[in-house]
């Protein structure tokens, strides 16, 4: 299987630099006239898939909003993943997993093993048990053309205390995470498969991103207050692999499919301009 980095690179070239999250908040279900139950969840997810699955490069279902409804919600998530694959968008499952290595192995099987019912193109992962503890995910991703997005500087204000803290060798925690990702991506062309998550809200990172050679997922746009113009502040000259991510800002335009598509098109246009891509 072609690597995730190569598949993402092509998807962004063909469809534009945009990831749209499927985050069915109770307030959004209500705004869409849907019930706050499994049926509402299913209709919400299907509507997003039908409107955007053949249009945006990456779709990022947020697992928590599906898990909220127990096994029936997880069944909707599995079905949503399959529908997205059929429509051609890459599926990034937002689960932010992290644990000791032997347990990470099980998470890796759950999401990155092609025979799994939850098999996706990529997952989000938390490095705060040590980036090395995520090795089973990196290995399975490499074996099956998957990707892993590792949290580095998250979009929430509480993240900085931990992520900008200084390690024993003088680097920030975020820089140490970025450096380990860079090692994993070294030599990959056109792009490595291990990404970093850096919120569009974080301002200047103080990090050197020049060697990372992997995708930079940028959530925090729209509902959390960041705009496409902020991407330049955060990423400086390292704009080529930035993958801007919106959830509520785009989803708020639904449930009308045309309105959802128009919101996604606006987001792509804003991001293209900010990232200076034609
Ligand atoms: O990994 C993520 O996607 C993520 C990382 C981060 O630093 N901040 C962040 O907001 N997210 C996720 O991105 C989505 C943001 O949603 P909106 O604020 O509605 O665009 C949510 O699903 C968050 O869980």
Automatic annotation (TrEMBL):
User: Does Transit peptide show up as a keyword for this record?
Assistant: no
Catalysed reactions, semicolon-separated: orotidine 5'-phosphate + H(+) = UMP + CO2
Q: Where is the active site?
A: 96
Q: Does the keyword Lyase belong to this entry?
A: yes
Task: Output the SMART domains linked to this UniProt entry.
Answer: OMPdecase
* NCBIfam families documented for this protein: pyrF_sub2
Report the protein name in the record.
Answer: Orotidine 5'-phosphate decarboxylase
């Amino acid at each position: 299987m072609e690597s995730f980095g190569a598949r993402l690179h092509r998807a962004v070239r063909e469809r534009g630099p945009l990831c749209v999250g499927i985050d069915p908040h109770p307030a959004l279900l209500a705004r869409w006239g849907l019930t706050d139950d499994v049926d509402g969840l299913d209709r919400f997810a299907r509507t997003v898939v039908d409107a955007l699955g053949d249009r945006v490069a990456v779709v990022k279902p947020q697992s928590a909003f599906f898990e909220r409804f127990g096994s029936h919600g997880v069944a909707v998530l599995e079905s949503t993943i399959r529908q997205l694959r059929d429509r051609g968008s890459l599926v990034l499952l937002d689960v932010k997993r992290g644990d000791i290595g032997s347990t990470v192995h099980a998470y890796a099987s759950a999401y990155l093993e092609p025979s799994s019912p939850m098999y996706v193109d990529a997952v989000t992962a938390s490095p705060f048990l040590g980036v090395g503890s995520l090795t089973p995910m990196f290995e399975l991703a490499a074996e099956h053309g998957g990707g892993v997005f590792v949290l580095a500087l998250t979009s929430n204000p509480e993240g900085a205390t931990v992520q900008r803290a200084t390690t024993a060798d003088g680097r920030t925690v975020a820089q140490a995470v970025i450096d380990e990702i860079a090692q994993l991506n070294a030599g990959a062309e056109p792009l490595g498969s291990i990404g970093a998550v850096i919120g569009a809200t974080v301002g200047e990172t103080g990090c050197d991103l020049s060697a990372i050679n992997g995708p930079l997922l940028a959530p925090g746009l729209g509902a959390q207050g960041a705009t496409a113009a902020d991407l330049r502040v955060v990423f400086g000259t390292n704009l080529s692999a930035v993958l801007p991510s919106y959830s509520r800002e785009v989803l708020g335009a639904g449930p009308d499919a045309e309105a959802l598509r128009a919101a996604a098109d606006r987001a792509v246009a804003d991001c293209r301009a900010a990232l200076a891509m034609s």
